[in-house]
Automatic annotation (TrEMBL):
Entry keyword annotation includes Nucleotide-binding: yes
Cited SUPFAM superfamilies: P-loop containing nucleoside triphosphate hydrolases
Record domain ABC transporter: where: 3-239
Membrane topology category: Peripheral membrane protein
CDD domains in alphabetical order: ABC_Iron-Siderophores_B12_Hemin
Keyword set includes Nucleotide-binding: yes
Gene3D superfamilies (alphabetical): P-loop containing nucleotide triphosphate hydrolases (3.40.50.300)
Coiled-coil portions: none
GO BP, sorted A to Z: iron ion transport
Official protein name in the record: ABC transporter ATP-binding protein
Amino acid sequence: MTVLKSEELQFRQGKFQLHDINIEFPEGKMTAIVGPNGSGKSTLLKLFARLLKADNGLVTLDNQPIHKYKRKEYSQKIAMLPQAKEVLPSITVKELVGYGRVPFQRLTGPVSEEDKEIIAWAIRETGLENMADRMVGHLSGGELQRARIAMALAQKTSVLLLDEPTTFLDITHQLELMKILSRINKTHQITVIMVLHELQYAGAYSDNLIVMKRGEIYQTGKPQAILTAQLLKEVYEIDASIKFENNYPVIIPKN
Ligand SMILES: Nc1ncnc2c1ncn2[C@@H]1O[C@H](COP(=O)(O)OP(=O)(O)OP(=O)(O)O)[C@@H](O)[C@H]1O
């Protein structure tokens, strides 16, 4: 079954245009969106998150056009974690994770027991138990990214959209993050859709790959089937060989 789908989606911003985007994100799978800088990956994610509105075409969630959902209802179904560019507020990890419960809360009154349990669950899932009371401004890049993911998890949605979750992290923390996302996906059947630049993680961790080039979908499919030397040449304009070892694509440039 498909949860999220677009048909003939079109969107223009300045000189850039997304053309006829027809894609499906299968339920409960991990999908990576890859492509060169400026190919439209973040824009596409924002259209699915309803942060932007398409000029033409249709996006559906569980067969219903996404604009038919009330804002609160939609944020109970899809969580979006944008690129980590925001200025950090002066709050604790637990409070940051609590923001994920906002779509479920009344405007006034104490945090419910259910909300507290979900916040604790999201903190456990991301291994932040021993830093729940730390100020977010004092966290390392890897810890902060885990806290941001915990906030998105606390929204308890069935779909998680992540824009470049591994940016600014070293290899240890990139791996740690990919493992957390994979575990969340497999244990809780959350559909994970992530924009990634690192082809090695996109290849190793996604069930399904979407490759973009200049505002269009160049190709979709299983990583091992579509990540080829021809794709590297046509999409990234590099001459390189590519082979898979233990599910990881190994790319060696020729010059
Ligand atoms: N608000 C805007 N107004 C006009 N053009 C924009 C706006 N936001 C983005 N663009 C342009 O749209 C194009 C696609 O941007 P987008 O951020 O979706 O690409 P991307 O594939 O995510 O890139 P990157 O990998 O560098 O993050 C780029 O050329 C960008 O300059």
